[in-house]
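Dear colleagues,

As part of the handover before I leave the project, I'm documenting each prediction I ran so the next person doesn't have to rerun anything. This entry is a single chain, and its sequence is reproduced below.
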Amino acid sequence: MDKFVPDMYQKNIYVIDYEGLKKRGIKCIIFDLDNTLTSPTSIKTSKKLIKLIDDLYEMNFKVIIMSNNFKKRIAPVKDALRVDCLAMAMKPLTFGFYKILKRYHLQKSEVVIIGDQLLTDIWGGNKTGITTILVNPVSLVDDITWTKFNRILEKWVMKRLIKKDLFAKGRYYE
């Protein structure tokens, strides 16, 4: 069950201590797209999101969107935020994570993934050995069919994690 426990858990991407990540030696932030940065049905990027990404660039972070979705879905957000991306990552499989590590000459200790799903983002990041941060989904209403199925499995996993006092929804930590 430990493989599903995030290193950190925060309410959303805007309350994360990025300075703290920098001090820990993090150089690259991988963001999941759907329900982490935007709603799964939206290609719009808010001014708040654009400012956050600009601030992260000013802090010298490499920012990458890593999504299980198609390139066509990611492209408008990628372009608006001026970030690199990896589409069809097939998280929780690890080859997408390793592709990023190799392409950008990064060590596992220099990378964090921030996402909204235990079964894809967190499990994949933990299997790879990078830092993982779980955030609450932007919207549960807009989940696509596959994600709705994952959420059902995620609830089952959460119950077991809560039972073992390894994790609890709403109990945020760094």
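The longest helix spans residues 145-163. The two ends are 19 Å apart (CA to CA).

All the best with the project,
I.
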